[in-house]
Amino acid sequence: MREGLFIKKNIDKWKQYQYEPATDPDEMAGQFTDLVNDLGYSKTFYPQSRVTQYLNGLASRIYLGIYRNKREEVSRIARFWKTELPLMVRKYHREILYSFLIFVLFAVIAAFSAAHDETFVRGVLGDQYVDMTEDNIARGDPFGVYKNGDQLSMFFWIAVNNIKVSFMVFVLGFLVNIGTVWQLFKNGVMLGAFQYYFFSKGLGWASVLVIWIHGTLEISSIIIAGAAGLVLGNSILFPGTHRRIVSLKRGGKDGLKLMIGLVPIFIVAAFLEGFVTRYSKMPIAISLTILLSSLTFVIWYFVIYPIRLEKKMRAL
Fold this sequence. Notes:
The chain is an all-alpha fold. Helices cover 84% and strands 0% of the residues. The chain folds into 2 domains: 3-78; 92-315, no CATH class. The N and C termini lie far apart (60 Å).
Protein backbone atom coordinates (compact mmCIF):
# COMPACT_ATOMS: atom_id res chain seq x y z
CA MET A 1 0.00 0.00 0.00
CA ARG A 2 1.33 3.43 -0.93
CA GLU A 3 1.98 5.82 1.95
CA GLY A 4 -0.59 8.33 0.72
CA LEU A 5 -3.31 5.69 0.58
CA PHE A 6 -2.30 4.39 4.02
CA ILE A 7 -2.64 7.89 5.48
CA LYS A 8 -5.92 8.61 3.70
CA LYS A 9 -7.39 5.35 4.92
CA ASN A 10 -6.54 5.97 8.59
CA ILE A 11 -6.21 9.72 9.11
CA ASP A 12 -9.76 10.25 10.40
CA LYS A 13 -9.27 7.51 13.00
CA TRP A 14 -5.93 8.95 14.11
CA LYS A 15 -7.39 12.44 14.48
CA GLN A 16 -10.22 11.05 16.58
CA TYR A 17 -7.70 9.33 18.84
CA GLN A 18 -5.70 12.54 19.08
CA TYR A 19 -8.45 15.14 19.59
CA GLU A 20 -11.16 13.02 21.24
CA PRO A 21 -9.21 10.88 23.71
CA ALA A 22 -11.07 8.03 25.37
CA THR A 23 -11.68 8.05 29.11
CA ASP A 24 -12.71 4.42 29.52
CA PRO A 25 -9.65 2.20 30.23
CA ASP A 26 -10.87 -0.61 27.95
CA GLU A 27 -11.48 1.81 25.10
CA MET A 28 -8.04 3.34 25.60
CA ALA A 29 -6.47 -0.11 25.50
CA GLY A 30 -8.30 -0.86 22.25
CA GLN A 31 -7.07 2.38 20.67
CA PHE A 32 -3.53 1.67 21.81
CA THR A 33 -3.61 -1.82 20.27
CA ASP A 34 -4.95 -0.39 17.01
CA LEU A 35 -2.24 2.27 16.89
CA VAL A 36 0.50 -0.24 17.62
CA ASN A 37 -0.66 -2.25 14.61
CA ASP A 38 -0.61 0.86 12.41
CA LEU A 39 2.79 1.86 13.82
CA GLY A 40 4.20 -1.58 13.10
CA TYR A 41 3.00 -1.37 9.51
CA SER A 42 4.39 2.14 9.10
CA LYS A 43 7.78 1.19 10.54
CA THR A 44 7.98 -1.73 8.15
CA PHE A 45 7.12 0.11 4.93
CA TYR A 46 7.82 3.79 5.72
CA PRO A 47 10.53 3.72 8.42
CA GLN A 48 11.81 7.27 7.75
CA SER A 49 8.41 8.85 7.16
CA ARG A 50 6.92 11.58 9.31
CA VAL A 51 3.77 9.50 9.66
CA THR A 52 5.83 6.90 11.54
CA GLN A 53 7.03 9.57 13.96
CA TYR A 54 3.48 10.86 14.33
CA LEU A 55 2.06 7.41 15.14
CA ASN A 56 4.87 6.73 17.58
CA GLY A 57 4.09 9.92 19.48
CA LEU A 58 0.35 9.30 19.47
CA ALA A 59 0.76 5.71 20.70
CA SER A 60 3.12 6.90 23.44
CA ARG A 61 0.58 9.48 24.61
CA ILE A 62 -2.20 6.89 24.86
CA TYR A 63 0.11 4.47 26.66
CA LEU A 64 0.96 7.13 29.24
CA GLY A 65 -2.76 7.77 29.67
CA ILE A 66 -3.39 4.09 30.38
CA TYR A 67 -0.49 4.00 32.86
CA ARG A 68 -1.70 7.15 34.57
CA ASN A 69 -5.21 5.67 34.93
CA LYS A 70 -3.75 2.56 36.55
CA ARG A 71 -1.79 4.69 39.00
CA GLU A 72 -4.91 6.70 39.78
CA GLU A 73 -6.82 3.48 40.52
CA VAL A 74 -4.10 2.40 42.95
CA SER A 75 -3.97 5.84 44.56
CA ARG A 76 -7.78 5.83 44.76
CA ILE A 77 -7.70 2.64 46.82
CA ALA A 78 -4.98 4.05 49.08
CA ARG A 79 -6.90 7.31 49.43
CA PHE A 80 -10.03 5.42 50.49
CA TRP A 81 -8.29 3.81 53.47
CA LYS A 82 -6.10 6.77 54.34
CA THR A 83 -8.55 9.65 53.94
CA GLU A 84 -12.05 8.88 52.67
CA LEU A 85 -13.04 6.15 55.13
CA PRO A 86 -11.60 7.87 58.25
CA LEU A 87 -13.41 11.10 57.36
CA MET A 88 -16.61 9.11 56.85
CA VAL A 89 -16.09 7.51 60.26
CA ARG A 90 -15.57 10.95 61.78
CA LYS A 91 -18.76 12.21 60.14
CA TYR A 92 -20.72 9.47 61.90
CA HIS A 93 -18.91 9.32 65.24
CA ARG A 94 -22.19 10.11 66.98
CA GLU A 95 -23.90 7.09 65.39
CA ILE A 96 -20.93 4.89 66.33
CA LEU A 97 -21.21 6.12 69.92
CA TYR A 98 -24.96 5.41 69.98
CA SER A 99 -24.38 1.92 68.56
CA PHE A 100 -21.70 1.25 71.17
CA LEU A 101 -23.91 2.44 74.04
CA ILE A 102 -26.91 0.42 72.83
CA PHE A 103 -24.79 -2.72 72.48
CA VAL A 104 -23.13 -2.33 75.88
CA LEU A 105 -26.46 -1.56 77.57
CA PHE A 106 -28.00 -4.80 76.32
CA ALA A 107 -24.87 -6.77 77.25
CA VAL A 108 -24.97 -5.40 80.81
CA ILE A 109 -28.71 -6.12 81.08
CA ALA A 110 -28.06 -9.69 79.94
CA ALA A 111 -25.25 -10.18 82.45
CA PHE A 112 -27.47 -8.79 85.23
CA SER A 113 -30.34 -11.07 84.18
CA ALA A 114 -28.03 -14.10 84.08
CA ALA A 115 -26.85 -13.30 87.60
CA HIS A 116 -30.42 -13.39 88.89
CA ASP A 117 -31.86 -16.20 86.77
CA GLU A 118 -30.05 -19.51 86.43
CA THR A 119 -32.03 -20.43 83.32
CA PHE A 120 -31.22 -17.22 81.45
CA VAL A 121 -27.89 -18.37 79.99
CA ARG A 122 -29.39 -21.57 78.65
CA GLY A 123 -32.30 -19.62 77.22
CA VAL A 124 -29.91 -17.36 75.31
CA LEU A 125 -27.06 -19.69 74.33
CA GLY A 126 -29.04 -22.92 74.09
CA ASP A 127 -28.82 -26.16 76.05
CA GLN A 128 -26.56 -27.85 73.51
CA TYR A 129 -23.87 -25.17 73.70
CA VAL A 130 -24.00 -24.93 77.50
CA ASP A 131 -23.85 -28.72 77.92
CA MET A 132 -20.91 -28.95 75.54
CA THR A 133 -19.06 -26.20 77.42
CA GLU A 134 -19.83 -27.88 80.75
CA ASP A 135 -18.23 -31.08 79.40
CA ASN A 136 -15.20 -29.14 78.17
CA ILE A 137 -14.78 -27.50 81.57
CA ALA A 138 -15.01 -30.91 83.28
CA ARG A 139 -12.26 -32.19 80.96
CA GLY A 140 -10.05 -29.22 81.78
CA ASP A 141 -10.41 -27.60 78.35
CA PRO A 142 -13.13 -24.93 78.72
CA PHE A 143 -12.40 -23.37 75.33
CA GLY A 144 -12.28 -26.62 73.41
CA VAL A 145 -15.06 -25.43 71.10
CA TYR A 146 -12.46 -23.35 69.24
CA LYS A 147 -10.41 -26.47 68.54
CA ASN A 148 -13.12 -28.33 66.68
CA GLY A 149 -12.72 -28.71 62.95
CA ASP A 150 -10.11 -27.88 60.37
CA GLN A 151 -8.45 -24.49 60.78
CA LEU A 152 -8.91 -23.37 57.18
CA SER A 153 -12.55 -24.47 57.08
CA MET A 154 -13.22 -22.64 60.34
CA PHE A 155 -11.57 -19.51 58.97
CA PHE A 156 -13.78 -19.42 55.87
CA TRP A 157 -16.96 -20.31 57.75
CA ILE A 158 -16.34 -17.69 60.46
CA ALA A 159 -15.43 -14.99 57.93
CA VAL A 160 -18.61 -15.58 55.92
CA ASN A 161 -20.75 -15.73 59.05
CA ASN A 162 -19.28 -12.51 60.49
CA ILE A 163 -19.83 -10.67 57.22
CA LYS A 164 -23.39 -12.02 56.99
CA VAL A 165 -24.27 -11.01 60.55
CA SER A 166 -22.79 -7.52 60.22
CA PHE A 167 -24.44 -6.85 56.86
CA MET A 168 -27.73 -7.99 58.39
CA VAL A 169 -27.24 -5.42 61.16
CA PHE A 170 -26.64 -2.79 58.47
CA VAL A 171 -29.38 -3.72 55.99
CA LEU A 172 -32.07 -3.86 58.70
CA GLY A 173 -31.55 -0.13 59.10
CA PHE A 174 -34.12 0.08 56.31
CA LEU A 175 -36.69 -0.71 59.00
CA VAL A 176 -36.24 2.85 60.33
CA ASN A 177 -33.54 1.69 62.79
CA ILE A 178 -35.78 -0.88 64.52
CA GLY A 179 -34.13 -3.81 62.76
CA THR A 180 -30.60 -2.55 63.52
CA VAL A 181 -31.40 -1.99 67.20
CA TRP A 182 -32.94 -5.47 67.34
CA GLN A 183 -29.76 -7.00 65.94
CA LEU A 184 -27.64 -5.03 68.42
CA PHE A 185 -29.97 -6.29 71.16
CA LYS A 186 -29.55 -9.93 70.09
CA ASN A 187 -25.78 -9.76 69.81
CA GLY A 188 -25.39 -7.69 72.97
CA VAL A 189 -27.52 -10.11 75.00
CA MET A 190 -25.56 -13.09 73.65
CA LEU A 191 -22.25 -11.47 74.59
CA GLY A 192 -23.47 -10.49 78.06
CA ALA A 193 -24.83 -13.96 78.84
CA PHE A 194 -21.77 -15.64 77.31
CA GLN A 195 -19.27 -13.57 79.25
CA TYR A 196 -21.18 -13.84 82.53
CA TYR A 197 -21.31 -17.62 82.17
CA PHE A 198 -17.53 -17.91 82.18
CA PHE A 199 -17.13 -15.47 85.07
CA SER A 200 -19.67 -17.50 87.04
CA LYS A 201 -17.46 -20.56 86.48
CA GLY A 202 -14.35 -18.77 87.72
CA LEU A 203 -13.02 -18.53 84.16
CA GLY A 204 -13.78 -14.88 83.49
CA TRP A 205 -10.29 -13.50 82.97
CA ALA A 206 -9.18 -16.67 81.25
CA SER A 207 -12.04 -16.22 78.78
CA VAL A 208 -11.02 -12.61 78.19
CA LEU A 209 -7.46 -13.66 77.37
CA VAL A 210 -8.67 -16.34 74.96
CA ILE A 211 -11.95 -15.20 73.43
CA TRP A 212 -11.17 -11.51 73.08
CA ILE A 213 -8.14 -12.32 70.92
CA HIS A 214 -10.62 -12.38 68.04
CA GLY A 215 -13.57 -10.87 69.88
CA THR A 216 -12.07 -7.38 70.03
CA LEU A 217 -12.20 -6.98 66.26
CA GLU A 218 -15.39 -9.01 65.87
CA ILE A 219 -17.46 -7.04 68.40
CA SER A 220 -16.04 -3.72 67.20
CA SER A 221 -17.14 -4.61 63.67
CA ILE A 222 -20.68 -5.40 64.82
CA ILE A 223 -20.87 -2.06 66.64
CA ILE A 224 -19.67 -0.13 63.58
CA ALA A 225 -22.06 -2.12 61.40
CA GLY A 226 -24.77 -1.02 63.83
CA ALA A 227 -23.68 2.59 63.27
CA ALA A 228 -23.94 2.04 59.50
CA GLY A 229 -27.46 0.73 60.03
CA LEU A 230 -28.34 3.81 62.09
CA VAL A 231 -26.98 6.02 59.32
CA LEU A 232 -29.26 4.23 56.88
CA GLY A 233 -32.29 4.42 59.17
CA ASN A 234 -31.72 8.08 60.04
CA SER A 235 -31.57 8.96 56.34
CA ILE A 236 -35.19 7.76 56.12
CA LEU A 237 -36.39 9.22 59.41
CA PHE A 238 -34.62 12.56 59.18
CA PRO A 239 -34.15 13.61 55.54
CA GLY A 240 -33.70 17.25 56.51
CA THR A 241 -34.02 19.62 53.57
CA HIS A 242 -33.51 16.82 51.04
CA ARG A 243 -36.15 14.67 49.43
CA ARG A 244 -36.46 11.40 51.31
CA ILE A 245 -35.24 9.31 48.36
CA VAL A 246 -32.17 11.55 47.95
CA SER A 247 -31.45 11.31 51.66
CA LEU A 248 -31.86 7.52 51.53
CA LYS A 249 -29.41 7.21 48.64
CA ARG A 250 -26.85 9.30 50.47
CA GLY A 251 -27.33 7.39 53.73
CA GLY A 252 -27.11 4.05 51.92
CA LYS A 253 -23.94 5.09 50.13
CA ASP A 254 -22.27 6.32 53.33
CA GLY A 255 -23.35 3.26 55.30
CA LEU A 256 -22.07 0.94 52.57
CA LYS A 257 -18.67 2.67 52.66
CA LEU A 258 -18.48 1.97 56.39
CA MET A 259 -19.33 -1.66 55.74
CA ILE A 260 -16.70 -2.00 53.01
CA GLY A 261 -14.16 -0.66 55.47
CA LEU A 262 -15.05 -3.48 57.86
CA VAL A 263 -14.42 -6.35 55.44
CA PRO A 264 -10.64 -6.61 56.13
CA ILE A 265 -11.41 -6.55 59.87
CA PHE A 266 -13.88 -9.42 59.47
CA ILE A 267 -11.19 -11.42 57.69
CA VAL A 268 -8.51 -10.72 60.32
CA ALA A 269 -10.95 -11.58 63.12
CA ALA A 270 -11.85 -14.84 61.36
CA PHE A 271 -8.16 -15.65 60.92
CA LEU A 272 -7.49 -15.09 64.63
CA GLU A 273 -10.49 -17.20 65.64
CA GLY A 274 -9.69 -20.00 63.22
CA PHE A 275 -5.93 -20.18 63.63
CA VAL A 276 -4.96 -18.50 66.93
CA THR A 277 -7.77 -18.70 69.50
CA ARG A 278 -7.56 -22.52 69.52
CA TYR A 279 -4.21 -22.21 71.33
CA SER A 280 -5.98 -21.41 74.58
CA LYS A 281 -2.93 -22.18 76.70
CA MET A 282 -0.58 -19.79 74.96
CA PRO A 283 1.58 -17.53 77.20
CA ILE A 284 -0.37 -14.67 78.72
CA ALA A 285 2.09 -12.15 77.26
CA ILE A 286 1.32 -13.27 73.70
CA SER A 287 -2.42 -13.26 74.30
CA LEU A 288 -2.29 -9.76 75.80
CA THR A 289 -0.14 -8.50 72.95
CA ILE A 290 -2.63 -9.66 70.32
CA LEU A 291 -5.63 -8.41 72.30
CA LEU A 292 -4.14 -4.99 73.07
CA SER A 293 -2.85 -4.60 69.51
CA SER A 294 -6.37 -5.17 68.18
CA LEU A 295 -7.88 -2.76 70.72
CA THR A 296 -5.24 -0.12 69.97
CA PHE A 297 -5.91 -0.39 66.25
CA VAL A 298 -9.67 -0.01 66.70
CA ILE A 299 -9.34 3.02 68.98
CA TRP A 300 -6.69 4.65 66.79
CA TYR A 301 -8.25 4.07 63.36
CA PHE A 302 -11.90 4.59 64.26
CA VAL A 303 -11.59 7.27 66.97
CA ILE A 304 -8.27 9.13 67.22
CA TYR A 305 -7.09 9.19 63.59
CA PRO A 306 -10.40 10.45 62.12
CA ILE A 307 -10.45 13.35 64.62
CA ARG A 308 -6.85 14.30 63.84
CA LEU A 309 -7.43 13.99 60.11
CA GLU A 310 -10.50 16.21 60.25
CA LYS A 311 -8.56 18.88 62.17
CA LYS A 312 -5.72 18.65 59.65
CA MET A 313 -8.13 19.01 56.70
CA ARG A 314 -9.79 22.06 58.29
CA ALA A 315 -6.39 23.68 58.82
CA LEU A 316 -5.52 23.43 55.11
